[in-house]
Design brief:
Length: 624
């Protein structure tokens, strides 16, 4: 299929610098050509998905999620999602063929030729590189091209389906009105904490404990003794000879090299990256006027304090010293082109226009030994002290192996034997690295001791004294806590019940103000607020905001009291306000684009729903 490329190729030398490029195309949709390499996992309308294909794709998705999210995702759900995606892609490919879609040879050739990994440094497709990379990856060109064509067809059918989605001006306008709508309301709040006269009965306590006993499960706990060897304690015995300092300096000269730096000040006239021409001209004129003042001899630092929009204005625009690569390129180029004392013309960056003054140029140099001698001595001493602390810990560990006596090992080592209180998996108090210690301790058995462990602050040897497993205590042990929880629940229910009575009265025709007096609550007005936004005087109350936007002038009350963050609310919408029509024109295109993405997803999903319903998917092997 790619013979035309191979026949007209020019010779070249394949250069491998650090390894082999591994192709991952098969993991994008991979199956079909490779299905004979594994057992059947599923059959979709007669077409097989292999278990090997699924496992390859799952590994890629798993590795990506593991790197991005750690362990905070559901692996079983991930496996199911990968399986569903494979099935959906087969259904879409079959639908594409039913519609007569195909990937032509010219399309395939062009796509592969434009793949950067198969190109020379000059951007030309090289068939020798193509064949070499495929062979090193264990893939034949026939398999690769077949799989590539499938991937391209999958992209083509998805693009075709999503292109069906359209958003009219009227839809965009409706969304604009919906999104920018504001309401004002009045409300009363029934706070559970005010219902202090409720009592938790014995039956309620018992029933609540029976239903929620797992909530009172204790945490596993441990108690340990440990020896701690702090490297800082060994520093006073360490002396570093001058010749070692000099040797270290000579061996690490590169680390003491400093690039050329400039010490500069600047005055920023802020300007948006995409500002219209008239704003650009206005900002440039202002910058040129300030430049003229500076070059005429006015104090640059004072000009910066008066005119600069940058955060360094209060410091006279002082940026300190910086090497190349620290600032944005246009700024850097201008600064390093100036001599000490010179002032630049206005320089445009994404932040606006800058006038730059170079105060000093520091040439590239290697620091003298005298400048770094103390820091080298401290580093070498710390390294020696670390070794000494480790040696002392190892000697104590050897004593412990022979005597099994922590107190004796501590006395022989000249360190204190410390004992913790019982602690949870968050670690004990009184140590610098409680979590590190806990991670080690909870894998130990009672009456066992650890190896020499290195934490951030030194070396430890730990003896496990006791472990307590997690248990669900008897009711009597946690009765006070259960009773408090029951009372809190009863108070919350009392607030809901009172709010429901209040709502019934106002829906029956009584004004909120008249009803409020009898219930000892206050009617308050919010003023206008937007959908999902901050409610004046209430703050973030999503349930209350949602209820307000479900109501309208004809039905201003919610169907039931609203359980919010601060308590239970009864709300009444007073007024609705829609945005000015003039503002729609400026936002129309961005709104249409936003809605279009959602519509495209729905069109694709709706098509898949139909294909799933009509198709036959037989899963041979479970994926979970």
């Amino acid at each position: 299929m790619l013979s035309m490329m191979r026949e007209h190729a020019t010779s070249w030398i394949i250069k491998i610098l650090l390894g082999i490029i591994v192709l991952v195309f098969v993991f994008s949709f991979g199956y079909s050509s490779f299905q004979n390499r594994g057992n059947r996992l599923a059959v979709v309308n007669g077409e097989t998905i292999s278990r090997n294909t699924f496992e390859r794709m799952y590994k890629n998705v798993y590795d990506y999620n593991r790197e991005k999210f750690g362990d905070s995702f559901d692996y079983d759900l991930l496996r199911q999602n990968v399986f569903d995606d494979l099935v959906d892609n087969v259904l879409l490919l079959q639908h594409a063929r039913d519609l007569g879609m195909q990937v032509t040879e010219d399309e395939l050739v062009q796509d592969i030729a434009q793949t950067q990994v198969f190109q020379t440094s000059s951007g030309q497709f090289d068939p020798k590189r193509y064949e070499y990379i495929l062979s090193r990856s264990g893939v034949t060109s026939k398999d690769y091209e077949a799989e590539k064509a499938r991937n391209m067809l999958s992209t083509k059918i998805r693009s075709y389906l999503m292109a069906m989605a359209q958003v009219s001006d009227e839809e965009a306008r409706q969304w604009y009105n919906w999104d920018a709508k504001q309401v004002s309301m009045k409300y009363v709040l029934f706070e559970p904490s005010t219902f202090t006269d409720v009592v938790a009965t014995e039956d309620q306590i018992q029933a609540y404990y029976d239903a929620h006993s797992a909530d009172y499960e204790t945490l596993p706990m441990a108690k340990v003794s440990y020896l701690y060897f702090n490297p800082k304690d060994f520093l006073k015995e360490v002396s570093i000879p001058q010749e070692e300092i000099e040797l270290f300096y000579d061996d690490n000269l590169d680390s003491y090299y400093e690039d050329q730096q400039v010490h500069a000040r600047h005055i920023l006239i802020s300007l948006a990256k995409d500002a219209p021409e008239e704003k650009v001209a206005e900002a440039l004129k202002k910058a040129q006027e300030i430049e003229a003042k500076a070059k005429a001899g006015e104090d640059f630092a004072e000009l910066a304090k008066e005119f600069s929009d940058g955060p360094t204005a209060k410091n006279g625009g002082d940026l300190g010293s910086f090497p190349r690569g620290r600032m944005v390129k246009p700024f850097e180029d201008a600064a390093f082109a100036l001599n000490a004392g010179e002032i630049s013309d206005p320089v445009r960056t994404d932040f606006g226009f800058h006038i730059i003054k170079v105060e000093e140029i520091k040439e590239a140099r290697t620091k003298e030994l005298s400048e770094v001698e103390d820091s080298i001595r401290s580093k070498l001493a710390a390294d020696v002290a670390l070794d000494e602390a480790y040696n002392a810990a190892e000697a104590a560990f050897d004593n412990l192996l022979s005597d099994m006596d922590m107190a004796k090992a501590a006395a022989d080592a000249g360190v204190e034997l410390k004992t913790t209180d019982y602690f949870t998996e968050q670690g004990p108090a009184g140590v610098a690295n409680p979590q590190e210690m806990a991670d080690e301790v909870f894998d130990m058995y009672k009456d066992s001791f650890s190896d020499v462990l290195q934490f951030d602050d030194g070396f430890y040897i730990i003896w496990m004294l006791d472990k307590k497993p997690a248990i669900i205590p008897e009711l009597e042990e946690v009765k006070a806590k259960v009773a408090a929880d029951v009372k809190k629940e009863v108070m919350a229910q009392a607030a809901i019940d009172k709010a429901a009575e209040f709502l019934e009265e106002v829906k029956g025709g009584k004004s909120m103000e008249d009803a409020a007096a009898a219930y000892n609550v206050t009617v308050k007005n919010t003023g206008f607020f937007k959908r999902g936004g901050y409610i004046p005087d209430l703050g973030d109350e999503p349930a209350v905001a949602s209820a307000a936007f479900l109501a309208d002038a004809a039905n201003p009350y919610p169907d039931a009291p609203v359980e919010g963050v601060k308590g239970v609310f009864v709300t009444c919408v007073l007024e609705e306000k829609y945005p000015e029509a003039d503002g729609f024109a400026d936002q129309k295109e961005s709104i249409k684009q936003r809605l279009l993405w959602g519509k495209r997803s729905r069109v694709l999903e709706d098509t898949l729903d139909v294909l799933r319903e009509r198709g036959e998917v037989k899963q041979v092997i479970p994926v979970i």
